Automatic annotation (TrEMBL):
SMART domains referenced in this protein's UniProt entry, alphabetically: AAA
Catalysed conversion reaction: dCMP + ATP = dCDP + ADP; CMP + ATP = CDP + ADP
Boundaries of every AAA+ ATPase domain copy: 1-148
Enzyme class label: transferase
Taxonomic lineage: Bacteria, Bacillati, Bacillota, Clostridia, Eubacteriales
Similarity remark: Belongs to the cytidylate kinase family. Type 1 subfamily.
Protein's name according to its UniProt entry: Cytidylate kinase
Gene: cmk
GO terms under cellular component: cytosol
PANTHER family linked to this entry: CYTIDYLATE KINASE (PTHR21299:SF2), CYTIDYLATE KINASE/PANTOATE-BETA-ALANINE LIGASE (PTHR21299)
Length: 220
């Protein structure tokens, strides 16, 4: 059966890590929707477009050609033929992605692209509104979260491992701000779908979280 699996949750919950690993286990395609919004944010920064310029951001999203490919077991994000995988993970791009993702026109363009990618099934897609808006008919929906302290530590460790200078206080402020924006935006706010399974990964390692997610996916 060509299933469609949706994983939602707040920043730093481990969605991308688990979604990617789950896709590998099932032999499915992994689609990182957060990376798509980060890519639009990166392009906006490069073009000097403000995050509150809805018209310009919508135009950017409509013209951007964003594709994904797997190289060496890693998802690579390609923007207009250019690999931006590392560039979109910078803290300043992540901070801009939240307000950019709240622009209705941007969401309209990217949601259409995401639905097209999932049309043939065998897909694991993660984000903040996948089970509620993008793929409301997904076969399996998981709401993955963790305590704020744990999410801060995970993101801090991730950035440090990539050689990006930051502080725990800075990461906490960034994640807290994104949590508020994502859950309070008018268009497609972050929330758990009524038929999604709540999975709290606080204190759990990746293998245990993956095992639980896999069991949920295979049970559907």
């Amino acid at each position: 059966m060509k299933k469609v699996i949706a994983i939602d949750g707040p920043a730093g919950a481990g969605k991308s890590t688990i979604a990617k690993a789950l896709a590998e286990k099932l032999g499915y395609i992994y689609i990182d929707t957060g990376a798509m919004y980060r890519t639009v944010a990166l392009l906006a920064q490069e073009q000097g477009v403000a995050v509150d310029d809805a018209a310009a951001l919508t135009d950017i999203a409509g013209k951007a050609e964003i594709t994904m490919r797997v190289e060496g077991g890693q998802n690579r994000i390609i923007l207009n033929g250019r690999d931006v995988t590392e560039a979109i993970r910078k803290p300043e791009v992540g901070a801009a992605a939240s307000p950019v993702s709240a622009v209705p026109g941007v969401r309209e363009h990217l949601v259409a692209a995401q639905r097209k990618l999932a049309a043939h099934g065998c897909v694991v897609m993660d984000g903040r509104d996948i089970g509620t808006v993008v793929l409301p008919d997904a076969d399996c929906k998981i709401y993955l979260t963790a305590s704020l302290d744990e999410r801060v530590q995970r993101r801090y460790d991730e950035l440090c491992a990539k050689g990006i200078q930051t502080t725990r206080e800075g990461v906490r402020e960034d994640i807290s701000t994104r949590d508020y924006r994502d859950s309070h935006r008018e268009t497609s706010p972050l929330k758990q779908a009524e038929d999604a399974v709540y999975l709290d990964s606080t204190g759990l390692g990746i293998p245990e979280v993956l095992s639980r997610a896999l069991a949920l996916a295979e049970a559907e």
